[in-house]
Every structure is written in C-alpha cells, then in structure tokens.
Amino acid sequence: MESVIESMMKTTEIEFPVTELIEQRRSRRAYSSRAVEVEKIKSLFEAARWAPSSVNEQPWFYLYATREQSTLWNKIFETLMPGNKIWAKEAPLLVVAMYRKNFATLDKPNGAAKFDLGAANAFLSLQATQLGLNVHQMGGFEKSKAIELLNIPETHEPVVIMAIGYLGNLESLPENLQEREVAPRERYTQDFFVLNKTF
Ligand SMILES: Cc1cc2nc3c(=O)[nH]c(=O)nc-3n(C[C@H](O)[C@H](O)[C@H](O)COP(=O)(O)O)c2cc1C
Questions:
Q1: Ligand 1 environment, Cβ below 6 A
Q2: What is the pLDDT of residue 1?
Q3: If you take atom 27 of ligand 1, which residue's CA is the nearest one?
Q4: Residue 56 located in a structural domain
Q5: What's the burial of 110, exposed, middle or buried (CB within 10 Å: 0-12/13-18/19+)?
C-alpha cells in the first residue's frame, strides 16, 4: 500500500520538456491484428543494437515470433501469466528479452548484463513509438516454462516478454482494462529521486 506522502510526491504531468517520443510512449494493451512489417521488426532490433553497454559487451538477446509463426508464437504466449494472456493474446509480435549471463570472452558473470538489457529494451521501445508501434513489457511470465518450451540454454536469462503491435480498439478489452488504458499515468516528481546534496 502506498503511503500518503508517496502519493503526494506523484503527478500526472510532464513537468519539464522531454523529447516527443518519451512523451508519446505508453504500455498499452489493445492491439490491432495488423501484422508488424518485417522492416519494422528489423528496425526495432537495430535500435536495441545501438544501445550502450558495459565494456560494449552487448549482452542482450531476443527471441521473437510473429503471429503467423503460430507454433513459436504460442510457445511464447503459453508462458505468460493469466492476467497478461487476457490482452496479449492479440499481439502480432511477441519478443522474449534475455541476456547472456557471462562475458563472451571471460568465463565470468557480467554484473551489468541485466542493466544493459534494460537500456536496449528502452531504445527498442522508443524506436517502436517512432514507428507507430506499441511495446508492452511483461515480467509476468513463467521463467521455467519459457526455458523449457523455448529451449533457452543455461547461458541465457529471460527477463521480460514484450508484446508489440499497432494499437487496436479499446472496446476489445475487458472493462477494467479499458479503464486502466485511459487512466492518466502517474510518476514520482523529481524531488523523490533526484538529489543535489549528500543523503
Ligand atoms: C520489467 C517490467 C515488467 C513489467 N511487467 C508487466 C506485466 O507483467 N504486466 C503488465 O501489464 N505490465 C507490465 N509492465 C508495464 C508497467 O506496468 C508499465 O511500464 C508501468 O505501469 C508504467 O506505464 P507506462 O509504461 O505506460 O508508462 C512491466 C514493465 C516493466 C519495465
């Protein structure tokens, strides 16, 4: 449960100018059945490719399936938690985002790998926004099932599944999700997470 003080430290406004793509990006749930063009899929992963990473290790790794690849798409879909399946069932593109646990040339864990994957996913998400696509990341999936169904090796760790596609009709969603879809988003104000003195 959120404290009163915490809720007071949130607003729904963008308080200082940011680039338009950041303003427009949202994790929506209503998908159109329109397929995502192959070139656009390539652009999404290209954006991830150019993310920064610790020692330029580029530990991110993506496994994707389009809806037409129904066997693979279903394997990814099957791993989702029931609450995510309700809306992600319409997504024309599902992507499992994972990272390589060890450095490529050293038999040693890369402590920054998950962090770097997050940066790559953020790049991918903003590129998607620019292409008119919606990305919704989901931590709500069964990791062990994903490992089994997708044959993910020990060397790789899945972190989120992303539902990607064009926006569809709000009415296609159950009522409670329709409300969430149009609700204003809240964020902590900068006072909550930015410090310009010692703690
Ligand atoms: C790592 C991660 C895991 C998430 N898992 C889920 C999820 O399982 N189901 C879901 O509906 N949304 C999930 N989200 C979406 C967040 O709820 C969403 O990003 C947050 O509410 C802010 O909304 P916005 O992305 O529209 O700004 C996840 C987001 C991230 C980054």
A1: 26-27, 84, 137-140, 160, 185
A2: 67
A3: 26
A4: yes
A5: buried
